[in-house]
Every structure is written in C-alpha cells, then in structure tokens.
Design brief:
This protein is α+β, with helices and mostly antiparallel strands and 486 residues long. The protein is built from 14 helices and 18 strands. It binds flavin-adenine dinucleotide (FAD).
Length: 486
C-alpha cells in the first residue's frame, strides 16, 4: 500500500519516466532524472542518506498503448511487429507482461522446435513459408547493434509423413495444395520410400510425402532470447507479473438479427507483482491475449464466454492446456544422420537429436488417454505401452532403444479445430488473440505476430488473409480444421 501511495504522490515524476521511454525508447533519461531528484532531496534534507524513491524499474508503467499478456514466442512476435510496423519511431508504447521469466512451463521452450510446410490448410502453409523466410534471415530481422549474431542451430531436414491406404487420397490432395502455395514437397510410393530410407518398414504405408525445402528444427530458446533482445533495443517494456483482472466499460446494442449484445472495452489491466500481494493497474488501449495454454483463462477474465449458451456472448475461447510427452532415447543401431522427422499414420513421430545416435519423439494421446494437465510429470508407461511398439513397428532397429530422459509440455490446444485463433474478439472489442496453435505455434509465430500487428494498426490482415482464424468461427460453427497435427 505504501508503495502505491508513494507512486501516487510521485505521479508526475513517474509519468515523466514513462514519457522518457516513450519518446526515445531508452530508460537512460529516466535514470538521469532519478539521480538528479535524489540529489535535490538530499540537499533539502541534509544528512539524510534516506531515499524516499523506490527503485521502480520492476513495475509496469501506469499507461501503455498495448499490453501483451504472455511473453512466449507469440507475445514477443506481436510486440516485434507492432514496433516494426509503427508509422513513426516511438509512436506506440508496448508492454509485455510475463509471469515467469524462467519460462519453466511455457510451451515455447518445451517444444521440439520443428518447422514444416506440410499442413492441410493453405493458411497454415502460407504462415510457415513466411516464418521459414524469417528464420533464414533472422540476423536481418533481429540484428542489434554491437551484439553478436544469433545462431538458431537450424537443422535443415524434411518431414516425412506416412499415410495408410485410408489417408492416401487426402495426403495427395494436401500435397497438391501445398505445392500450389509454393512449398516444395514430393510424394513417394512405398518402393521409393524403401529405397531412400532402407531402415523403414513400409508395412501398412500406401503413400509418403517428404519436404524438400524450408523444413527442419531449431533452438526455440535462442529465438525467444533473440526476440527479447531486439525488443529491448526497440523500446518495448517488460514486466514480471501476472495479469489477474481487467477493468472494462460496457455498452449495449442490438444485432441485425435482433440479438441483444453487450460490447466491452478494457481500460485497465491489473498486474499482480511477483512475490507480492499488490497489483499495479496499467491503463491501456489494446490487450493482446498471447497467454498460450492459459489464454482461455485470460479470455474468461475479460468476460469472454460469460453469457447465455448459443449466443456470441456465451461463446468461450476453446483453448486449454493439453499435456504432451517428449521422450529422448539412444539407439546405436538406429537410422543415423539421414533420419528426417518421421510421422507415422499411428500418430507416433520421431527425429534425430544431435549427432550421437540420439532420437526424440512421442505420440499424441487419444481423447480417452488425455493425461491430467495439473502437472508436468512424465508418464514413462505411456512410452512403454503406446509409443515404443509403434516406433519399433516402423523402424525395427528401435527394438533395441534405451530411453535416456523425457519431459512434458503443454500444447495450447484448441478443442474446436486444432488451429490458431488470430485477431480481435467481436464483443470485447479491444482484446486481440494470438493463440490456440495446438502444437505448431512456434514455427508460425513470426507470421502470426505480423498478422496481429496488421489487425491492430490497419484494421485488416494485409500479408496473409487469416479471416478463417477469427474468433467468430466458434459462434458460427465454421471449423478451420487442421488435419496434420502431430
Ligand atoms: C512438447 C511440445 C512440442 C512442440 N513442438 C512444436 C514444434 O515442433 N513446432 C511448433 O511450431 N510448435 C511446437 N509446439 C507448440 C508451440 O510450442 C506452441 O504453440 C507455442 O510455443 C505457443 O507459444 P505461446 O507464446 O503462445 O505460448 P507460451 O510459450 O506458453 O507463452 C505463454 C506465456 O504466457 C504466460 N502467461 C500465462 N498466463 C499469464 C498471466 N495471467 N499473466 C502473465 N503471463 C501469463 C506464461 O507464463 C507463458 O510464458 C510444441 C509444444 C509442445 C508442448
């Protein structure tokens, strides 16, 4: 409370701090002012080493044009593109609120870092093509003067998707669409497959598709840190705290079909500071919900879904945490350096990890097998019973593998159509979404960040038309179903 009271009394100085950062994108002028004020106070109260000014660098500003909830790869990408596309340098103040700067549970750092072009929806192919270009030129996009270049540890390698008789026709039409969008993907018969990858058993495989360009895997932590470093140089503000509440105003209107709806506008975001019971209010014009697996909860806080069932008001954001295991194993007899990322029709997948005969992989559980998302403990029996038999059937050499370690992470799982949610909410008019990518959000973050920034700044998508990914589809029941989910 004392801290808040002081903040109120020192309001003019603190807003001076805000303006300093606002104009120049740097906190140097503020630091200078603080030491000037401290000197002045000490000269008025001689002998007093007591300093009434708290170090407020950990506090969020009182105002920010945009508040981004979640400092994972999607939140940071939105921040990057907002600053990059702003009309005048320093025109927009952007604050990223992240509750855990160690990212212990964030999907971004617990992912397996893959990028592919092989999706069933053209929008997803376009997003990944854009991101591939971004990653290839990362040191042009994220260069910071006097800092060393980033090394994403990019490992170029095609994804090898296998289809059974049942899935072959769909695979063929997917590949046709992917090529039309500009992706380089080839189809292989079981005979061709056997010739190129002699360690694979082609039993039950009718067709395979293999990426020839723009696919592989990289270090997600490096991308996250590269974005963060760049954002700091662009004047984006960061704050460690948890968004716990939104203060909004409401107005009522009637739709063309006679439905009464309440429009909401968020004015203030409450940020609960780390290891404190206090919260700091931040006035804002726009809120971006980039809270990953927790974005459903953030939407609820803003009143999304808080209305009668079957109405737009009662339509919730269908994104929830789903626990996924990644197992790491050693197998000297395994496929070796030539192994691409292989996705089996059974749902199991694996790829090489490093150069020492190590591999990683897993398998998404069925709805009935979904583990409790309450913690990130690993179930080793799941590997034994569900993953290993499938791997060994596809690659007989994996009979001899030995599991070395494992981890679990959360998919930001969209239960409606396993696809991203991008753009504004129709009723909470200043909340924008960048979430719900259900296992492919890392690779699409560079493009999605740009799409959200375009929506915020221009009111429409410019680079890639992501209208099928708008929130309103949940109300209208229009699925943008992505079938190629690993
Ligand atoms: C095992 C696994 C493998 C994957 N493999 C791939 C892959 O190969 N390729 C790919 O493209 N994608 C992959 N993904 C998916 C990808 O990791 C996610 O789609 C993507 O990282 C989502 O990014 P995000 O920024 O939305 O989420 P996150 O990285 O989870 O960031 C969200 C952040 O919001 C913060 N937050 C939540 N609530 C609040 C709050 N109230 N206040 C403040 N902060 C809050 C959280 O602390 C978190 O840091 C994988 C995911 C998993 C789990």
């Amino acid at each position: 409370m004392l801290q808040r009271a002081l903040r109120l009394r020192l309001g003019p100085y603190l807003s001076g701090r805000g303006l300093g950062t606002y104009r120049g994108g740097s906190t140097l002028d503020w630091d200078g002012k603080v030491s000037e004020i401290k000197k002045k106070i000490q000269s008025i109260f001689p002998g007093g080493a007591w300093s009434p000014l708290y170090d407020t660098s950990h506090l969020p500003p009182e105002r920010s044009d945009v508040v981004i909830v979640g400092g994972g790869v999607l939140g940071l990408s939105v921040a990057y593109w907002l600053k990059r596309l702003e009309k005048q340098r320093g025109a927009i103040r952007v604050l990223v609120v992240e509750r855990d700067h160690t990212y212990a549970q964030a999907s971004t750092v617990l992912s397996v870092g893959g990028i592919r072009q092989q999706f069933s929806l053209p929008e997803n192919v376009q997003l990944s093509l854009f991101s591939a270009e971004f990653l290839r030129n990362i040191n042009e996009y994220l260069a910071v003067v006097d800092d060393p270049p980033l090394d994403l540890q990019f490992n170029p390698s095609g994804y090898l998707l296998l289809a059974s008789e049942e899935g072959a026709a769909i695979m063929e039409s997917n590949v046709k669409m992917q090529r039309k969008e500009g992706a380089k993907v080839c189809l292989m018969s079981p005979e061709q497959l056997q010739k190129k990858f002699p360690w694979i058993s082609t039993e039950g495989v009718a067709l395979a598709s293999y990426g020839l360009e723009n696919e592989g895997w990289f270090d997600p932590w490096c991308l996250l840190q590269g974005l963060r470093r760049k954002l700091q140089s662009m004047g984006v503000l960061f704050c460690q705290g948890e968004v716990t509440r939104f203060i909004s105003s409401s107005s009522h209107m009637e739709t063309g079909s006679g439905e009464q709806v309440t429009l909401k506008r968020i004015h203030e975001v409450h940020v609960k500071m780390d290891r404190s019971q206090e919260f700091q209010p931040v006035e804002c014009a726009i809120v971006v919900n980039a809270a990953g697996a927790w974005s459903g909860q953030i939407a609820e806080l803003a009143g999304v879904g808080n209305g009668p069932p079957g109405t737009m008001q009662g339509t919730r954001l269908p994104v929830e945490p789903r626990k996924r295991y990644v197992y790491l194993w050693h197998c000297p007899q395994g496929p070796g350096l030539e192994a691409p990322l292989v996705a089996d029709p059974s749902g199991a997948y694996f790829r090489r990890e490093g150069l020492g005969n190590n591999y990683l992989g897993g398998c998404s559980p069925t709805e009935e097998e979904e583990p409790d998302p309450g913690n990130l403990e690993v179930d080793y029996d799941f590997f034994q019973e569900k993953v290993w038999p499938r791997l060994a059937q596809r690659v007989p050499a994996f009979e001899t593998l030995k599991v070395r370690s494992a981890w679990a992470g959360y998919y930001d799982y969209n239960t409606f159509d396993q696809n991203g949610v991008v753009g504004p909410h129709p009723l909470v008019v200043n909340m924008y979404f960048a979430t719900g990518f259900s296992g492919h959000g890392l690779q699409q973050a560079p493009a999605v960040g740009r799409a959200v920034a375009e929506m915020v700044l221009e009111g429409h998508f410019q680079t890639i038309n992501l209208s099928p990914f708008l929130f309103s589809r949940f109300y209208f029941g229009e699925k943008a179903q992505e079938h190629c989910i690993l």
